[in-house]
Records
---
Amino acid sequence: MIGRLNHVGVATPSIDDSLALYRDILGGTPHGEPFDLPAQGVRVAFVDLPNSQIELIEPLGADSPLNGFLAKNPKGGQHHVCFEVEDIIAARDALTAKGATVLGTGEPRIGAHGTPVLFLHPKDMGGVLVELMQAPDAEGRHP
Ligand code: CO
């Protein structure tokens, strides 16, 4: 069912401070510039690792879904893990049949990588917020 770990999502009150940490202290490689994702209420930056990425997410706006997380974790913290799946609709239907709960409308949205994503409620996932991302096809094309 789940495929490769695509990224680990890390919430932060300051993307600039976190980029400095991951670049200057940890020696990671930032992937492009931070960008806003208004539909999801977050500002995003990626850090490349040899086998995966860190997705830094900072609240964007008063309605950001990250505001509650940062109220409980003022310094930020590990927020979600993202697994690739071959077919996001098939994965959603199989997982909900086994008791998983999809957040929001239940329909995939376009995530920070420009690919369809879904989030699964942590209550059924051992306390972990799980993001599913449709993986690119064999030619590297996204749906
Ligand atoms: Co993510």
---
Amino acid sequence: MKRDYRQDFPLLRENPIVYLDSAATAQRPDVVIEAEMEFYKKYNANPLRGLYSLGIEATDRYEEARECVANFIHAASAKEIIFTRNATESLNLVAYSYGLSHLREGDEIVVSILEHHSNQLPWRMVAEKTGAVVKYLECDRQGHISDVDLQAAFSEKTKLVAVTQVSNVLGIKTPIDKIVALAKKSGAVVVLDAAQSTPHMEVDVQKLDVDFLAFSGHKLMAPMGIGVLYGRKELLSEMPPFLTGGEMIQTVTRDKVVYAELPHKFEAGTVNGAGAWALAAAIRYLQEVGYEHIQKQELLLTTQLMEGLTKLPYVQIQGSPDPKEHCGIVSFTIDGVHPHDVSSILDADGIAVRAGHHCAQPLMQQIDVMSTTRASMYFYNTEEDIEKLLTSVQTIRRRMGYGE
Ligand code: C6P
């Protein structure tokens, strides 16, 4: 019998909502909420500080969580895992620490036009401060990056490439293998934004051969406020700290500071112990569900939604016409109706979707739309959810005063 995953999620179990905004943040299963509570009930002390038994327990839980994350993304060592608040902070850490100390006037930073602002603005900041230049890697209206686009973006001046694995607007995957190969040829480091990929597909930093990788816990069912930066040990070791203060030093005298070893050099101040422990619980839950099932369910629902929307002549689906190229994300527009109105009407029918520019304005300019309505699915969504969305979408133009 098919397992009803909604029963694992208190909000979905106790609420009639059709939640189709998992690309913004996923729902949390009981096991994650319980893990966060467990930390405070059983292990609460300031990790990495107290030398008493409870303090050591708190540190152990925190470091166990780091091991769990390292295994999850196949890092060679847990020392390569830095806990942050979210993907945005992880990307800023690389920009401020690596970017500002390594890039110089005339160097080129390649950023894809598909990027979320969190993987564009840090590099624009680095360019402004160092005199480096940001070059956009173009895509077509479906989000595909061609070999011609790739060749045009890279040169011998390319020193850093910042690219997402999956677009948060179109759901399309970028050709990461080709991007890494070209970056290696130019001697550039690769920063991969895995915020929209880790919830949906196996991510192996060693196979991908990327130098840095960022993701947020909350998109893969962990609490808000815990994120991850992976960095190659050789690079992290010689980078200056991002934030300074408590717990990131070995010794401080009046005239000298010796920073702590990895990963603590990059974790200044009291850490999010409960968040890290609950992130490990989210990863274990995700692994128990399995990417195979996640992808199967997402494809089933994406196909159902796209087939239904395609029948409506006034609906334009953005991105590829192939449901396999959407990673559970479908952005669309309805002729004559602003996406904010679409989302308000859907909300009145108990359906939660996101509307707007999705923090990716240059991409919206590239595909020539001001904003879209975005339905994003996860394995806990059902065919009934999609049926309700389609039924509601069919009424929107009428409710806005159009004839049909
Ligand atoms: N995208 C969305 O609705 P934070 O906010 O730091 O957890 O994640 C930032 C981020 C970075 N990269 C990509 C590809 C993302 O999609 C996001 C977050 C959400 O699409 C909120 S804007």
---
Amino acid sequence: MREPSLNEESSFQYKKGKLFCEDVSISQIADEIGTPLYLYSHRALLSNYERLKGTFRRLSPLICYSLKANANLTLCRILAHLGAGADILSGGELYKALLAGFPPKRIVFAGVGKTRQELEFALRKDIFMFNVESQGELELLEELSRGLDGKIRVSLRINPDIDPKTHPYITTGMRENKFGLEMDEAEKLYLKLKDSRNIVSKGIHFHLGSQITRIEPYLRCIEKMSKFISHLRKQGVDLEYMDMGGGFGIAYRQKESPLDIEELASQITPLIQERGLKLIMEPGRYLVANTGIMVTQILYRKRRKEKKFLIVDAGMNDLIRPVLYGAYHEIKKIQQPKKTSPMEVVDVVGPVCESTDFLAKDRSLPQSRQGEYLAIMDAGAYGFSMASSYNARLLPPEVLVKGEKWILSRRREVYSDLTKTEATSLEEENLIPSYPLPFVKLQGSGNDFIVVDNRANLIKDGGSLAMKLCPRKTGIGADGLLLLEESPRADFKMRIFNPDGSEAEMCGNGARCIARFAYLKGIVGRRCRFETLAGIISCQIQGKKVKIGMEKPQDLRLNLRLSVKGEIYEGHYLNTGVPHFVLFTSRVDQVPLKELAPSIRNHPKFRPQGTNVDFVQVEKGNTLKVRTYERGVEEETLACGTGAVASALTGNLTCGISSPVRVKMKGGDLLVYFEGAKDNSFSEVFLEGETRLIFEGKISEEVENV
Ligand code: LLP
């Protein structure tokens, strides 16, 4: 076994005893969002693209990234931005390519089985080139392009019958493979196309296969195609483009040699230039394979007489290449092994119920323990893009690292993703009993909530359930009912119902409680985003503490004077998700809140929606003492998150207190973070506080009769 020495240029290097991607420790990401996960390096992607472009610069080819290798939107966006085009195989890939920003004039479309709908979609978008693979497809294109403005551009995909000497499953350019047209068949079609009113033949296309590590097959094929092009020219068919497909092989093991692209470029440049052709290429693997790894955790170790198994949390559904092609992916420990650490021969296997579920067989690895993370290297190509949900497993998240930063490019699936395209009629016909309905009670700074996972949509009327459950004597007792529901825009949606049955837009303490609930139930990781009626909330969970990003506060009105019961009260209005009226006072404990607050809450100035009311006393050290009367609850509550934020922000504007502000409420302390601007606006507003899980239980159907 060789030492885990890493290529100097690699974006994946050991630093301080841990494997890093660029400047981020991989174990930190894994700790935070869990495993398995895919991780990509921005720097590696950039350098692969620039290297390819530089190597072939004398031909200035159109580099069409083959989306099938990895259609992750973030990666696609980066490549589109660098000026790459796209090679697509399906309507879905076209959709993603357009969304990522690849201009239609740089999109080429290959595939033996393009459907009528897919062709129509591509015609509507006026993509650059259809790489046609059969006579039938050409006839259909002819029919569909009738009546369009201008002619559409096609290349015929030739099956050159050349063995690229790669794995038989990824060989595409041999006669026995389904791809492309034979040369004499293609010749007839080219000649026929001369008379076409709707179609112009622009080029010739081939693709020999994938993971090709020798340049000879390319040279032979380009030679063959060049001759064919000259032969066609003599018959009046003048082709402009040669599309050489993809297939550039990489080194999955250090002892392997990748395709020598420098040599390939230097040999083909004269051939292409001589004939005045323009070059298109469709690299997939070359651009993304070594930009990505899959990170997995060792769940268990198992020992047999003849074998040792490392059972990890990623399976063949996450990375199928080892099983499907016997592909080799190097495996590294995230914790750098010591030079002296003993080696062992293991099978690295996943949790899927198939004996073929392995990532490596008889692999010699430095000894590792249960709970350790492993990196499956070079998994950026045909990794996630071939992943499935077999065994109802959740598709893993994808992360992009750039320097010291990382972003969650795709969140981990949650259970409800598994059923979102399935019919839900069972539940509509009441075949799934909704009772007993599990719930959790949590409290955040003195606000208590009943939280129910309503992703199956069993609760149709949250308002009426809240009215039954919130009363302390006849229900469970709570300041509100929180429903966690599906969201098309974020990890989940929070709906919050007051005890009077009304639905609130947002509640800071409620938001923290539901985030903790989602985390405890495995619905989200430590960071998540969720939808509320007041917008998307981002959130970080650390133990009991939950910190949420608040929407930008709105409708600030300072020094508003209200006349209440014949007296004038001055305060500040601010909407921090819900409306708040904040009054500063020197002795908050003595404010006759019960008498005063309802009249302010219902004051004509705040109609029709009314307002919450906060009484605030400034203390030393950026600290506020706050009492809040909450609309909907219609009394003073022990704490109110949006009220704490409104108090801190108006306190900043009128009393000069600065971030972070400690807000003391009866139910506990909250911390408010923010950045203020000169124009009295705020950004980066965060609310942090503790949440507590009080109990879990089941709601019985008798609640219906309350
Ligand atoms: N162009 C066409 C028409 C293709 O069919 C392919 C890949 C490419 C370009 C990109 O090939 P690349 O540069 O990535 O080698 N799942 C297999 C590879 C299948 C390749 C399919 N066609 C694997 O994991 O090895």
---
Amino acid sequence: MKPAQAIYRIDSSEATLLLSANGAVPRMLWFGASLPQIADPSALHSLCDIAVPQAKLDTAVPLSIFPDSGSGFMGPVALEGHRAGSHFSCTFKIEHIEQSSASIEFTLLDPVAELRVRTEFLLDSDSSVLTINTKLENTGSNAFSVTKFASATLPFADTFTECLTLNGRWGLEFQQHRSAISANQLRIKNTSGRTSHEYFPACIVGQQHFDAERGQVLGVHLGYSGNYEFTVERLSTGEACLQAGMAILPGEINLAPRAVIDSPPLYACAANSLNQMTQRFHRFARRHVLPKWTRAPRPIHANSWEALYFDHDEKTLLALVDAAANAGAERFVLDDGWFHGRRDDTSGLGDWWVDKTIYPQGLHSLVAHVRKRGLQFGLWFEPEMVNPVSELYKNHPEWVLQVEGQDTPLARNQLVLNLGLPAVRDYLYDSIAALVDEYKIDYIKWDMNRDLVLPGNNGQAGVVAQVNGVYELLDRLTSAYPALEIESCSSGGARADYGILLRTGRVWTSDSIDPIDRLTIQRGFGLFFPPEIMGAHVGHDVAHLTGRATSLQTRAIVALQGQYGYELDARHISDDEREQLVGYAERYKQHRHWVAECTTWEVPTRDASLFVKGQVSADQASSFWTVVVSSSLDTTLPEKLRLLGLDGAKRYRITVVGWEALKSFAKHIPDWVVSGAVVSGSELMNIGLNLPVMPAQSALLLDCSEA
Ligand code: GLA
């Protein structure tokens, strides 16, 4: 029960959360670096008391953990809705508080609007990431229509004046954008029905000019793969707050009497730099989000898509498998084009059985060959979709998301199946499970290639039900096949979030494998996701999406930032290229056993064209660094490189891979680059390294391991 003057507190290894239940409004007093014990709670309350300005309400309106309009709060309220027009406003009072060592749950009640809210704060002791889960219950006797329901509203420091978001488009996801936090509300709203290319569900607020190594930040991520909304606002009182939650379409959530709805979890991390925030999110995701199989060394993929597109048959695939295996691949993934009626993107989606005209004996010989060469086998699916030209659509036109009387615009010639319907989920489960059983599939590339338009489910908006349906189907498959690895792909990286990653364990980061575009794509992705789940492939010399030509060295080094693999026609590479690929594959294999526990480091650079990223093993004994120049630097020599995250007292042997390709660009290459060197971590982090002359689109790999 609620004692007067109560302060509720959870501590983790590096953070403290303080919530107050003083008075009517529950408040977050602190979430940030660890604080000493509070000697006198009532003194702290008097410190947190707030002034009441003129010309406003006669009482203070502090920022609640669940702000409501009935208290007079004029910023973003957490809940909006009504009961056939009435109960349009809420006033929540604390009903109950429950505390354990790692969690605090506030139960709030509005007896007039007949609504109960439970909001739970869980602070992970190891990573210091805070998870907030909120539930809404209708305690009334008729339906309550919910139009807004935020997962959490967090205050942040007055000194935070910048907001970083990740935005993008197909082929260029996760681009970093900065906005000033001033008088107006900043809003991110995604209504695409998937996590989207455009608005990644996260936002980082922080001190001016915060970067990889400097400035306090508060980063939040919503673990949800549907529609959502974020707002960042400085109120006229000067208080600043950040709010996030699912976005609800008109009439989408009608809460029946006694029914409860869960908000998607919000994950928050307070840190002293982006690198620290990233390392904490990675630690958290590895322990609490990602499937167990992601902890094992990640195999090298060879994916058939850009090698062959739809143009394959058994003979071609067998040759591709051989060529990919000879280049070091460990898992062969047959992409789109293998199922009934699928020779291009106009038909076939929904008919999940092997096409008998191209593969009369099924995929058995292919799979046997893949295994004979020592590789694993993966298969592409796009379960949520259907082409109007398909057996499935012919038999079940009623199975698509649609609005009666309206024509749903096609995207890539396809419509979306209504996964809110149990019959649709059953059909998909049975189709996929039959193939997993028949071919002992190791891995599924689970694709989802369109935005949801007119997402009607039996006359009502159905995005929330769709997302729950996708989660349910994946949960069913992963519990039946716990060793089956599933990748989340959505025209590249349009479905990457901790919601989908509770069920999948790898992301196809982008359809662009142009290594220069990948630098910013992978940098943004890496803020919230660890490298071992980032699909990164070496593509053809001329990137298919951008037409840019790059060296194999640059393509391979950029791919080594993630789960290394191939997206090229290995049948048509030279012996020299094959040898190079094998060499990089060997490097990848050397490090991958510690990468799943590594810390990643972004080295901030003065010249925005120089990209330096490092992965350091948990024991600080091993590390490797990718150094890539995107376009011509503004100085003849690259700026000095100071490494991060090493043990100052350890001695490291530093060796450079790829320097030979730079010989013709300078009269002299620094000695350590050519012959390697053994120096202390302290020298590497303080004095730093003089890099060789590096032209546009060049890349080096630095291996730095304990001597
Ligand atoms: C999407 C994916 C690609 C590929 C194609 C196949 O675009 O992002 O990687 O699988 O579909 O149609």
